[in-house]
Amino acid sequence: MKAVNIFFIVLFVLSAALQYNDPDPYIWMPIYLYGAVLCYLSMRRRYYPKLIIGGIIAYAGYALLLFFDKNGVISWMSDHDAENIVQSMKATKPWIEETREFLGLLLLIIALVANLIWLRKSKGLGNLHSGISILLLTMLFGTPALAQEPLVKFDNPKSIHPPKGYSHSATIDLGTCRMVIVSGQVAMDEQGNLVGKGDISRQAEQVFQNIKNAITAAGGNMDHLVKLNYFLLQGQDIQPIRDVRDKFINTNTQPTSTLVKVSGLFREDILLEIEATFVIPKGK
User: Fold this and answer.
1) End-to-end CA distance of the chain
2) Rounded to two decimals, what is the model's pTM?
């Protein structure tokens, strides 16, 4: 156990040092150094069960917070398909940063629980601390099973104009894949201003850009497109819209489509509206 503690001490001290340039070093440097000190004391067979158990509870509480946070581990696994977390030393994406922090806390908890059990056996103590250790391990490793991702998640990406009374997209978990339904998009930019008044091609360009922004925010891309529903003002030609569409999609696998000619949309200057459906395989 001495060699294991030496490993953890070195690991936690180095981890604390790496937090020096972190946005919140005042939180993470003490977290790692506290773990390193407890591992050192345990290596010297100095038994402080209250300090160890207190550390485990604090780390477990923080780990649970990171696991269920909006940009935490669940988001990393479900919304971002377990994106590579070792792309660079400095994480620029919150779901990667929080997943790294969660893994760091996991290592701290494992180290402290291992020392708690080892010291209990070394000191010939009763079953109280063993029971506490088992309980803490159950709380820790049982956490993922308790994390149930919502069946449907609604989203409004900032790259699309703010909606009024609806959501821009809905993501449905189908088990092996995720279906993303994008609400009918019109030619409005991020500020809600109309793009291409009287110009069907320019309006189509903005519509498909909004659709692309929606699926990108949901963790997919235009290759995952399976269905388009067009609502086109009577008197407008579909060919300019198809020409614009082909700039955004893979023309070798053209999506299924429905075209409906209408007498009017919700504003007179809106010439078309397009809904989209995507299917994103898990792990892609």
Assistant:
1) 41
2) 0.51
